Amino acid sequence: MDVEAAKMIGAGLAVFALLGVGIGLGNIFSSLLTGISRNPEASKELFSKAILGFALTESVALLAFIVSLLILFK
Amino acid sequence: MDPLNQFQVKTYIPLSFLGIDISVTNASLFMVLSVGLFCILSLMATRSRSLVPTKMQSLVENAYTFLNSLLQEFCGEEGLKYFPYIFSLFIFVLFSNLLGLVPGAFTSTSQLVVTGTLALTVFVSVTIIGLIKHGFKFFRLFLPDGVPFYVVPILVPVEILSYFMRPVSLAIRLFANMVAGHVMIKIFASFAVMIAGTAFLPLSILPLIVNTAVTFFEVVVALLQAYVFTILSCIYLNDALKLH
Q: Which residues of B touch A52 (CB under 8 A)?
């Protein structure tokens, strides 16, 4: 196989991590909604914790993105 | 058009002091600028300290009370001693992130050196604070109470490894967020340029619309990442102060 083509395929495969990140983010916000609808009083506290979880999960996606960029433009 | 081109460090004024390269680059210039901007802002805001605050004064006061309550929530009363450090950490990261969003400006937090240094300072200072406060008992951090003895040989190396991965993950998170956001903006902008060169010129408005939305999203990310960086530093500080 051509090296250029292999690079493109590799970059595409690298962002497969987004599969897990998508599931994780959906999980976080669905739990947040359930929590808020059960106890609307606690929404402010829950939101700041959910945002923390969001950012931690998001960083995995960005790592995958950086890896694919490195493959493409190195 | 290489989207990673914008992260190149350019030297403006070459300087060297005792063999160490301290030349003024675009990275260092924008770091100084972000600190200077906040100094000017807070000096102007607190020039006439009135009981009923003006808009500027309440902006700075709100930043203060926000971080104060954040630190108190995560570290309790004894964490308040380290408030100046946490405050300057938050403000520096926030201003560097936001300044980078100005078109043509350089994002100093998109350099792994900058974020790595920030994360290492947090790591080293938190470890020293813990060692001074607890002495050798600090190493109990790697061995939580009530663990069955047969898990210990696996758990302790994992805990030690995760402790040393903290600055790495802290640095990489901020760096990757900033780089990814700016690359995304650049890629959509180059789509618009590519379409404008063809016969479908009016269609180039579409990437521009997306780019506007991405830029808004990036402002949120800039705020969020400064917040997350500060919260994680507070959590690490709390670990060192209270040992689980």
A: 228, 231
Residue B212 CA to residue B216 CA, distance in Å, equals 6
By Cβ distance, the residue of B2, B224, B227 closest to A73 is: B2
Taking the Cβ of residue B105 and every Cβ of chain A, the question of whether any pair is shorter than 8 Å is answered with no
Closest Cβ–Cβ partner in A54, A62, A73 for B4:
A73
What is the pTM (predicted TM-score) of this model? 0.84
Phi, psi dihedral angles at B200 (to 5 degrees): -95, 45
Residue of A nearest to B235 (CA): A52
**Radius of gyration of chain B from its Cα atoms, rounded to whole angstroms:** 22
**Pairing mode of beta strands B16-17, B11-13:** unpaired
**Nearest Cα to A59, choosing from B161, B88, B99, B221?**
B221
Structure tokens at B74: 């995560």
Q: Encode chain B (244 residues) as per-residue pLDDT tens digits.
A: 677 777 777 777 777 777 777 778 888 888 899 999 999 988 888 787 777 777 888 888 888 898 988 888 888 888 888 899 999 999 999 999 999 888 888 888 888 889 999 999 999 999 999 888 888 887 877 777 777 788 888 888 888 888 888 898 888 889 888 888 888 888 888 888 888 888 788 888 888 899 999 999 899 889 988 998 998 899 889 888 887 6
| ipTM attached to this prediction | 0.71
| Rounded distance between C-alpha atoms, residue B211 and residue B216, angstroms | 9
Both tokens of B185, joined, read 């903006």
